[in-house]
Design goal:
CATH class: Mainly Alpha
Number of helices: 6
Distance between the termini: 18 Å
CATH architecture: Alpha Horseshoe
Number of strands: 0
Radius of gyration: 14 Å
Helix content: over 70%
Largest sheet: none
Structural class: mainly alpha
Shape: globular
């Protein structure tokens, strides 16, 4: 998706693209499809960056309750930037999960606590 398309989208569309991209990313990883995973990741990042530029990242908070663990992981990562008290419990729970999601949650928390986590 082009930057222009993200700029023209409504906040609701951006949140939906973020969610769709995150779920697709998890599915692509499970299928070992790196091309699709990269494309989905770009969608998540593009939607997040546009939400961030609008000061609308709080719209990601409801995604912390998603049934999809990859979506919860992405949302927890991005919400950590402005509401760690909401994000950390989700990351702690996810860190106990097996596989990539648990690994990523654990390392996200570690980097956050060390002050080395980058949100862009």
């Amino acid at each position: 998706m082009s930057a222009r398309k993200f700029q023209k989208a409504s906040t609701e569309e951006l949140v939906q693209w973020y969610a769709d991209g995150s779920i697709a990313y998890g599915q692509a990883l499970e299928a070992a499809d790196s091309r699709s995973a990269n494309s989905a990741h770009d969608k998540v990042v593009g939607a997040y960056e546009e939400l961030r530029s609008r000061g609308a990242t709080s719209q990601l908070i409801p995604l912390l309750k998603s049934e999809d663990e990859t979506l919860r992981m992405h949302a927890a990562f991005h919400v950590l930037e402005f509401a760690p008290e909401l994000s950390e419990p989700t990351l702690l729970w996810l860190a106990k999960r097996p596989g990539f999601v648990g690994f990523r949650a654990e390392h996200t928390l570690k980097a956050w606590r060390e002050g080395t986590l980058k949100f862009t």
